[in-house]
């Protein structure tokens, strides 16, 4: 029974809309299919959870993600 947790920042995305319900459905289907193909896991027992984290709650390299990106 695989459990996959995808964490993404909630920030509005390129067009200010962020990942749509369709985008998330594609992620869920794609990860489920990958586990079926690669490991032979049954889709009915595969769980995929997508967590959207507020941007100010995410850090990289000891910095808030916005500060990290500004330095790139």
Topology:
Layout: E1 3-10, H1 21-39, E2 47-54, E3 59-60, E4 63-64, H2 65-70
Parallel strand pairs: 1-2
Antiparallel strand pairs: 3-4
Provide a short characterization of the protein structure.
The chain has 72 residues and is an alpha+beta fold.
Query: Could you give a short account of the major beta sheet?
Result: 2 strands, parallel
Secondary-structure element string: EHEEEH
Q: Quickly give the structural class.
A: alpha+beta
Proportion of helical residues? 25-40%
Mean pLDDT: 90
Low-confidence stretches: none
Please state how the strands of the largest beta sheet are arranged side by side: 1-2
Alpha carbon gyration radius? 15 Å
Beta-strand percentage range:
25-35%
In whole angstroms, the N-to-C terminal distance is 39 Å
Tally of individual helices: 2
Overall 3D form:
elongated
- The number of distinct β-strands equals 4
Properties at a glance:
28% strand; elongated; two-stranded antiparallel sheet; 2 helices; two-stranded parallel ribbon; alpha+beta; 72 residues
What does this structure look like?
The structure is a single chain. This protein has 72 residues and is of the alpha+beta class. Helix content is 35%, strand content 28%. The protein contains two helices and four strands; from the N terminus they run βαβββα. It has a two-stranded parallel sheet with strand order 1-2. A two-stranded antiparallel sheet has the order 3-4. Strand 3 and strand 4 form a beta hairpin. The longest helix has 19 residues. The chain is elongated, with a radius of gyration of 15 Å. The mean pLDDT is 90.
